[in-house]
């Protein structure tokens, strides 16, 4: 299973860019602890050192849904601004989203169709006499390149494979950038409220959220017990 995940500050201020960088670090630590393979596909640096506007990560594992359930959504950092000490705001939000509907383009030589032809232009006696030029076509995408730099058909084939791989990779990056732009446009304003995770302080400690309400029930029981004792 593969999933593309984007951590983004949206159009948030510098504080959100700082949070994005810190969240990426924590996110990758948990990825490693869960033995999930990852690759940082793209990152956009923030306006200051050690800040990020966004990062896109490719995750690979047999099962990812349970892990991502604890991350996808809005992330909150609670603390006064480290950049603007007089700023009154203390809650800063960023978002983590899945980039859906995007398939990675795999490049395998078995998917390449080769066609040899005679070289054109000046180049000695081999030109127009021997089929040394090579056209390579990547069948899944339809992308093709032409190589006639060398008098050796083998060398031209190697050049064609290299150029075709670069072209197919560029196609994937272009597709990825378009998808990221679409996601960016959809999440210009990161959703606030009900964050999946909350951190606090400059040391970026996670605030535990007890969703079972067990602690609250125990407090109420203790208060009721004290009330009964007072009545007696």
From TrEMBL:
Transmembrane segments: none
Start and end residues of each Prokaryotic-type class I peptide chain release factors domain: 118-134
UniProt cross-references to Pfam families, sorted A to Z: RF-1
Listed SUPFAM superfamilies: Release factor
InterPro entries for the chain: Pep_chain_release_fac_I, Pep_chain_release_fac_I_sf, PrfH
Family the entry assigns: Belongs to the prokaryotic/mitochondrial release factor family.
UniProt-listed PANTHER family: CLASS I PEPTIDE CHAIN RELEASE FACTOR (PTHR43116:SF3), PEPTIDE CHAIN RELEASE FACTOR 2 (PTHR43116)
NCBIfam families named in the record: release_prfH (TIGR03072)
Name of this protein: Peptide chain release factor H
